[in-house]
Amino acid sequence: MDNPSFDKENRDYLPQRDRELLLQLAREALEIAVRGEQLPELDLSSIPPNLSEHGATFVTLMKNQELRGCIGSLEAKRPLAEDVRVHAMAAALEDYRFPPVTRQEIPGISIEISRLTTPHRINYRDIDQLVMQINPGVDGVVIKKGIRRATFLPQVWEKVPDIEKFMDMLCRKMGAESGYWRSGGVEIFTYQVEKFCE
User: Fold this and answer.
1) Which residues pair with 197 in a beta bridge?
2) Same domain, 141 and 105
3) Sign (positive/negative) of CA torsion 67, 68, 74, 76?
4) Which of 28, 29, 62, 136 could form a disulfide with 85 if both were Cys (CB 3.0 to 4.6 A apart)?
C-alpha cells in the first residue's frame, strides 16, 4: 500500500518481507495476549537491522471492517519490532473503548500497522493559517494542551473528511469541548504514516 507522503522526511518504505515479519510478530503477540501468557523476549539479532532501530507505531485491530482496538505511541521509544508487539497486545487487551479480545474472536480479526514519522509542530498565527498547513487524507494530527493530548491517524480522514469536524472530534477525544482547537494556546502537530495490513 503506497503512502507517498511518508517520504516527506526522506524515510524509506519497509521492504515487503519486513512488513510481513512485523505483521507476523503482531499476530503472534495478539494470540499470546488473548491466551493470558507472557510475551517472550524478542531476539533482536534474529530480525533485520532496520526492525531493530527505534520506531513509533500504532497497531489497529479490525473485525467485520469495524474498529476493534487501536493502541500506539507517537515517540520512538523501543525497537520497531518490539513496539509492534507491545501495541498489538495492548490493542487486544487495553483499549478502554472495547472489552478485551476473546479467543473466539481471533480468527475474525485483521491487523493493520501504521509506522509513524516524527510529529512536526505547526506554527500558526490564526485558524486560517493552521488549516492551510493540515493535509486531509495525508496527515495524522496531534492536539496538545498541557499534559492532555490526543491524536487521530490519517486513516480517520476516510470517515471524517471535513477538517473542522475532524478537529472538533479530536478535541472531544482529548476531553475538551468541540471547537477548543480554535481557542488558541493549543499545540498542533502533524505526522505521516506508512501503513500496511494483513
Assistant:
1) 112
2) no
3) negative
4) 29
Residues 49 and 110 in one domain: yes
Residue 40 lies inside a defined structural domain of this protein: yes
Residue type, 96: Y
The structural domain count of the chain equals 2
The burial of 28, by beta-carbon neighbours within 10 Å (0-12 exposed, 13-18 middle, 19 or more buried), is given as middle
* Per-position pLDDT tens, the chain of length 198: 344 445 544 457 899 999 999 999 999 999 999 999 999 999 999 999 999 999 999 999 999 999 999 999 999 999 999 999 999 999 999 999 999 999 999 999 999 999 999 999 999 999 999 999 999 999 999 999 999 999 999 999 999 999 999 999 999 999 999 999 998 889 999 999 999 999
- Residue 46: domain span: 4-117
**Within this chain, do residues 50 and 144 fall inside the same structural domain, yes or no?**
no
| Residue 197 in domain | no
DSSP letters of 33-64?
HHTTPPPPPP-GGGS-HHHHSEE-EEEEEEET
**Are residues 96 and 147 part of one domain?**
no
Burial group, residue 121, by CB count within 10 angstroms (0-12, 13-18, 19+)? exposed
Instruction: State the pTM of this model.
Output: 0.89
Would you tell me how many other CB atoms lie within 10 Å of the CB of residue 128?
8
